[in-house]
Amino acid sequence: MSEDLESYRLAAREWLAANLPTVDGGGARLGSDDEAWQRARELQRILHDGGYAGIAYPKEYGGRGLTPAHQRVFNEESAGYEMPLLLNVPTFSICAPAILDFGTEEQKREHLPAVLRGDEVLVQFLSEPRGGSDLAGAITRATRDGDMWVLNGSKIWSSGAYAADYGICLARTDWEAPKHSGLTMFIVKVHQPGVEVRRIKQVNGDSEFCQEFFDDVQIPASDVLGEVNGGWAVASRLLFHERTAVGGGSPYVSGGHAVARVPEPDLVELARRGGRLDDPGVRELIAESHILRTVAGQLVDRVSAGIRGGAMPDPAASLPRLFSATSNERRIDIALAVAGPAAVIPPAGAPGDLGARYLMRQGGSLGGGSSEMARNIISERVLGMPREFAADKGVPFSQVRQSQTPG
Ligand SMILES: Cc1cc2nc3c(=O)[nH]c(=O)nc-3n(C[C@H](O)[C@H](O)[C@H](O)COP(=O)(O)OP(=O)(O)OC[C@H]3O[C@@H](n4cnc5c(N)ncnc54)[C@H](O)[C@@H]3O)c2cc1C
């Protein structure tokens, strides 16, 4: 640990103790309702004013211009404090980095400082009702009209859209080009005439997912992100950032793992409460869970370093992404087995959300692209195996057979 990082750690430790409330159990407030989003924005403002927002973001766009190692140190120190974890995915770790990569100077200056102050929440409008895996087959359309684009269609599974200010939205702008070449990415104001956001009730009781309906939504031409008809490059970059974030390797995640909004269950404590700590089978399960977590962390470090140093291609981000999805599922299964009936009817004082987590455990194999798609990417773009056959390759999109009529 360099002297610089060590003194940064001590300063952060002191600042956190003086400025943020602690949270029993080491996590943030649960829930994704309006109050939780409001609180996340307030907390982000406190971090910003204290000089701890956007630690690895460039200074000219409101960040601190420090290294991912500084962010990691801050994350370690902030465990146990109330942090705006809701803002990590997709705002800090996926959407804002894509604006950093592809935005015009004006877009960067407009959105990034606002994001880091907690004034702007960004979400992803990518998946459509016709299917999310074939992202390049999007049929939401944008048509140029003078200085404006007019957006029509529908997006779905947009996490947190009801609480967001802008959606990064992929739309088809040229129907005569092959499917990957006729797409454009837009920065769309969520709350404006023509946009209807409907929340979707999930199996665990949350309503974090949304579906949006766009009816002649007016978008200024200056809100195109990247090139007109160059939307696939932006989408690919968003997906890279998403895999990196969900896999646990994003330098922009603040205050802990990108998607873990709740503390890890303490398996030893769960086994002790159930009187099963001496059971060899239970002890093996606890060890397996610990090993999976350790390997996941090391895989992130190894692949992140490989991509940064050029030894691995960007699609290698799918490796930790896939491993975190499959290992998290297994670890939640283990937690349920160790907890026994306490998973659904916890004794007084015990964490009571394991049952609900079990219901949602497969979400990690879908969000940011499914585990099957991650395997396809690893085989084709990391291992160099033959590409999957695509009947629509090179065909004008208007001539591609659809299960739903375009437009
Ligand atoms: C927690 C979570 C958060 C999400 N957040 C967002 C968000 O903020 N914004 C957003 O736009 N979307 C979001 N999504 C949606 C997500 O991106 C999609 O669920 C995902 O891309 C899969 O799309 P689909 O559900 O339409 O399944 P489909 O694409 O219909 O696929 C169905 C099944 O077929 C398999 N399959 C499809 N094609 C292939 C193939 N070529 N080879 C092998 N198998 C294949 C898939 O793996 C899957 O098992 C989120 C999803 C989850 C679970």
From TrEMBL:
Gene3D superfamilies: Acyl-CoA dehydrogenase/oxidase, N-terminal domain, Butyryl-CoA Dehydrogenase, subunit A, domain 2, Butyryl-CoA Dehydrogenase, subunit A, domain 3. Keywords: FAD, Flavoprotein, Oxidoreductase. The keyword Flavoprotein applies. Belongs to the acyl-CoA dehydrogenase family. The keyword Ribonucleoprotein does not apply. Coiled coil: none annotated. It comes from the Bacteria. PANTHER family: ACYL-COA DEHYDROGENASE, ACYL-COA DEHYDROGENASE FADE34. This is Acyl-CoA dehydrogenase family protein. It comes from Phytohabitans maris. Residues 126-217 form the Acyl-CoA oxidase/dehydrogenase middle domain. Residues 34-119 form the Acyl-CoA dehydrogenase/oxidase N-terminal domain. Its cofactor is FAD. Residues 229-383 form the Acyl-CoA dehydrogenase/oxidase C-terminal domain. It holds the Pfam family Acyl-CoA_dh_M.
